[in-house]
Amino acid sequence: MENNIFNNYREWVSEQKMPKGERAVLLAGLALFAQQGYNGTSTAQIAQQAAVSQATIFKYFKTKQDLLLAIIQPILENLYPRYRDDFLPELDQYKTLAEIVHFIIQNRYQFLKENAEAFTIVLTELLTNPTVRTLFFKVVQESQPMITQHLLRALKKVGVRQELDLVAIERTIISQLLTYFIQQRLVPQVPVDEQHDLQLIEAQIIRAIKK
Fold it and tell me: Interior CA angle at 130 toward 151 and 81, to 5°?
């Protein structure tokens, strides 16, 4: 598969030059791992959803673990860099803390929604899969200089509490956003006012980090 940067995992898979059966297996694995978890999904279920035989799965992926990594690795190596490279420089244009927090929450929540299946799998596997953790922390470590350059500079410019370092600020923002994202994935049938909820999250973050 080509190693190009992308915005949406499903669109990327659909555009790759690969056999139809391999593409069907990747998309079926993406959907089922996100819905049921890796351990809760059998290759028989993947084969049924992909409309292929189990032999076809093992033709392209030696094990179910190989299929999981074939899904996750492009997400971490290509999707996250797009998140980083397109998003972070835009922070420099905002002049107030409210504008910066609004942009971060609105922009990143939309990004999470567009790739909800992919991020659900990554978040789940981070807890249990050492290979996924290694891949994830490698990408995060490579991104830290750019995060420091843009995010911390933008926030310090508009006034945040002096005692907060970058890790504390990131933790405050990410925990609020991911908690809301995970809640929507766990109980999607519960009606929500998304814009109202996101405004509340923005207000909570501002209160936590404002000077």
Answer: 30
Q: Rg (Cα) of the chain, in Å, rounded?
A: 19
The answer to whether the beta carbons of residues 29 and 44 sit under 8 Å apart is: no
Give mean pLDDT, residues 19-25.
95
Give CA–CA dist 159/161, Å, rounded: 7
Dump pLDDT digits (tens) for 144-179: 888 887 888 888 888 888 888 888 988 999 899 999
Please check the confidence at residue 111 and state whether its pLDDT lies above 60.
Answer: yes
Q: Are 84 and 123 in contact (CB under 8 A)?
A: no
SS3 (DSSP) at 210:
strand
CA dist., res. 123 & res. 104, Å (int)? 19
Give the residue among 189, 190, 154, 145 at the shortest CA–CA distance from 173: 154
> For the chain, percent helix, then strand, then coil, each to nearest 5?
80, 0, 20
Helix (H) or strand (E) holding 118: helix 116-126
Strands (DSSP E) found in 29-178:
none
Distance CA 64, CA 197 (A): 38
Query: How is residue 88 written in tokens?
Result: 């972070």
